[in-house]
Amino acid sequence: KAGVTQTPRYLIKTRGQQVTLSCSPISGHRSVSWYQQTPGQGLQFLFEYFSETQRNKGNFPGRFSGRQFSNSRSEMNVSTLELGDSALYLCASSSGQGDTGELFFGEGSRLTVL
Amino acid sequence: AQKVTQAQTEISVVEKEDVTLDCVYETRDTTYYLFWYKQPPSGELVFLIRRNSFDEQNEISGRYSWNFQKSTSSFNFTITASQVVDSAVYFCALSWGSGSARQLTFGSGTQLTVLP
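The joint structure predicted for all components is written out below.
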């Protein structure tokens, strides 16, 4: 079956702009998680959505937000971009119910903020 | 707090050598899961192995094996007869949380380079 799909794969923005990233989970998966990966901080958890509700949230400022639609697709938004937001943003999906936490990842969206 | 430590930043081996990647974790949860993921240059994190906190039996899966020891909070991963295609960044991760609301805490990763 199709894996996790993230769009766009690459994008360049300037400081102060906002960006929206999209993630389509594996068919049947109802949980979508987002992670930020940077050389300095490594992989950090942003938030997790399950059945259109945010179930978990990491330690990121309010500029980072997300949502999930009824078809389990998810978007994350970063407003007022800062240079430090340059990163690989990874989306992952899972069944979300009684599972072990194993996640299936997409290839990520690489954001560069100039 | 949950924490995963991968002390090895980079490892280089020659093809066909065995290589062990170290992972030490901290958690107060009694039920947790440990993972190893591989990240090739394409960026996607690929699941390799999983072990739950109740099962310390060590296993071998093809060229992969792991050594889980709760007494030392370690979850080491070994690749036998390494190949050039094994070159990637390897992440150890800890899944924690209650019920279904779990999240992963990752280590900082180990860059493995397998030389021909």
